[in-house]
Specification:
By secondary structure, this protein is an alpha+beta fold. The chain has two domains: 204 residues, no CATH class; 195 residues, no CATH class. 55% of the residues lie in helices and 17% in strands. The chain has a six-stranded mixed beta barrel. A hairpin with an 8-residue loop joins strand 2 and strand 3. The relative contact order is 0.19.
């Protein structure tokens, strides 16, 4: 063992006085700083990842709209899109807001606002994946059958097998005409775990959606699925070129650009603000080494008088700080991982203690708090804390290395 490491470990050796507790407190300070940074970044990363998964599990990768609001010949456009390499499937669709009511003999039946998504039941679409998320009934949108989100069904008081009435927005557009509601049968209820999707959408056939809007044919848009959704920006340009200038093509990144920008900015700001915790931990390291320097002034002077170089003394104190830093980082990573693995239990426990919901689904859009540990986040946390602690250790190390041997021994 070389001398700087030997001296660093010697100064870390526990003693029987109160001063020996200070390195432990310093290590715990670094540990808490790392754990908090890790937990917050993991939650923010999880929030973004789950949003991305929810969006890709419900929304199309590519959306094609006509410049005149409707697409008169969607079948021709769908055929062109499906010929493009990388496109998995494409289907015409209609999306429109409506009002829903339970078909019961009552003076004041429950009414809810919803959004209809009409797709061709004979073609594969992103909504076909809802078959795996059905919690009651089945996924059947043929004829008059529809599928509702679970929370939307609860707001209506509807169950699988019930009949509901769908009021067309044409009643607002044509004031001198009265359009009777369409009667639909609830074939199934789905639950994605995303509040907006479960409380707002009704899935039906393309023909039913046309009846609601009074359309003889056509569609309002075309939805396309890709083999790899991460190449949506590239495929968007290819599809736009194939369809021509009368179509407007957008990717799923563009559709939710604002959301992902906000999440990315919040994560960056949280990292910057919480980085001050690492600065506090660095000050703890500095204070510990300054205290050791004061306590060991005579010993340092004696070592320099015996011929030990400034570099060796300086290296010993830097290593002392690094050891505390590395120990704190490892403990912090372990603590952070433990908290994340039990995060939702802790949140539920705190909610019970405080008597309030700390993670309301109607605000955040999720049934539980998501988290994802990314290697890049761990690298950022470890690198930031390590650099701050080493810099903090270097300042008292310089002071110890520059002590005058004669004055230090006579102190």
């Amino acid at each position: 063992m070389n001398f700087p490491l030997f001296l660093a470990l010697k100064y870390l050796r526990p003693r029987r006085d109160l001063v020996s507790v200070i390195p432990i407190i310093t290590t715990l300070g670094v540990c808490l700083g790392v754990a908090i940074l890790m937990i917050v970044l993991a939650v923010m990363s999880g929030y973004g990842e789950v949003w991305r998964e929810k969006i890709l599990g419900f929304k199309p990768h590519i959306t094609v709209r006509g410049y005149w609001n409707t697409i008169d010949d969607p079948d021709s456009a769908v055929a062109k899109i499906e010929k493009i390499p990388g496109v998995k499937s494409a289907t015409a669709a209609i999306i429109t807001p409506v009002m829903l009511a339970l078909d019961i003999d009552a003076d004041d039946p429950p009414i809810s606002q919803a959004v209809i998504i009409g797709v061709d039941p004979g073609r594969e679409s992103i909504l076909s994946q809802l078959d795996n998320k059905i919690v009651s009934g089945g996924y059947d949108i043929s004829g008059d059958n529809v599928v509702l989100g679970l929370k939307l069904a609860r707001s209506l008081g509807a169950r699988a097998g019930d009949s509901i009435l769908c009021y067309s927005p044409r009643n607002l557009n044509t004031k001198n005409e009265l359009h009777l509601p369409e009667e639909m049968v609830v074939a199934g209820l789905y639950q994605t775990g995303q509040n907006d999707y479960d409380s707002s959408f009704l899935i039906c056939s393309l023909g039913m959606a046309r009846d609601v809007l009074g359309m003889d044919g056509g569609a309002t848009l075309i939805q396309a699925q890709l083999d790899d959704p991460m190449w949506a920006e590239r495929e968007k340009l290819v599809i736009a070129h194939a369809l021509g200038p009368m179509f407007f093509v957008t990717s799923w990144q563009e559709e939710d650009q604002t959301l992902f920008d906000v999440i990315r900015m919040e994560k960056t700001m949280m990292f910057i603000l919480l980085a001050f915790i690492a600065v506090v931990a660095a000050f703890c390291v500095t204070n510990t080494l300054i205290l050791i320097t004061i306590q060991k002034t005579r010993e340092i002077g004696l070592l320099k008088a015996l011929g030990f170089s400034k570099w060796q003394i300086e290296s010993a104190f830097v290593l002392n700080g690094m050891i505390q830093c590395v120990a704190g980082i490892l403990l912090g990573l372990g603590l952070g991982w433990t908290v994340l693995c039990n995060l939702n239990r802790i949140v539920n426990w705190l909610a019970g203690v405080l008597g309030r919901d700390l993670f309301p689904p109607h605000i955040y859009g999720f049934d539980e708090m998501p988290w994802r540990v990314l290697p890049s986040d761990i690298g950022s946390v470890v690198g930031l804390v390590f650099v701050f602690c080493v810099l903090a250790a270097y300042l008292p190390a310089m002071r110890a290395a520059r002590l005058d041997p004669v004055k230090a021994i006579n102190d």
